[in-house]
Amino acid sequence: NIQTAHRLVDRRHKSRKSPAMTNAGKRVKQSNRGFTLLEVLVAFAILSLSLLVIFRIYSTGFRGIGTADWKLQAIALAKSKLASVGIDEQLSVGTATGVSDDGFAWELTISAFAASPADKGQNLAAYFVQVSVSNSQNPKGAVRLSTLRLSREK
User: Fold this and answer.
1) Does the global pTM surpass 0.70?
2) Nearest 10 degrees: Cα torsion 64, 67, 72, 76
3) Contacts of 96 (CB under 8 A, 6+ apart)
């Protein structure tokens, strides 16, 4: 009877299927409890590409902010120089140059503007005034403003 008991226990044990066994008795893969090395490497590659794109966007944005700031300062200086013509600067044909305290190089050019025959009796002279502002940091991005100014002829 002991042999019979052992046989029954063996049959019961064989009939119970362990989670790692299939019907045919072959081992199957249990559920993953972690990530494989390949999955981790792929995740890092995706993360690094994403961060690279984000850093490029930020650097482009900061560069654009710097350029916009430079342009605003240059335009403010050019407007100031145009406004001073006829008040601080004498309205006469010629060229004047200088450098501002901020390091912006400016050039003010005043030239005679041809008046129409109808304006000859008005005793007015027209002048074309142009201001060009540049910076050594951005030599290609010069700002140019121009206007016409009237003055009484003497």
Assistant:
1) no
2) 180
3) 89, 107, 108
What tokens were used for 25? Answer: 């008795």
For 35, the token pair is 């990530």
Q: Which residues pair with 128 in a beta bridge?
A: 111, 148
Scanning the structure block, which residue is given the tokens 């999955």? Answer: 39
DSSP sequence for 50-109: HHHHHHHHHHHHHHHHHHHHHHHHHHHHHHHHHHHBTTTB---SEEEEEE-TTSEEEEEE
pLDDT, tens only, 114-135: 865 555 667 778 889 999 999 8
Could you give the angle at the alpha carbon of 20 between the alpha carbons of 9 and 3, nearest 5°?
Answer: 10
Rg of the Cα atoms in the chain: 42
Task: Count CB neighbours of 103 within 10 A.
Answer: 10
**Mean pLDDT across 17-29:** 53
Instruction: Kindly report, residue by residue over 51-96, the tens digit of the pLDDT.
Output: 999 999 999 998 888 888 888 999 999 999 999 888 877 788 899 9
How many Å apart are CA 88 and CA 91, to the nearest integer?
9
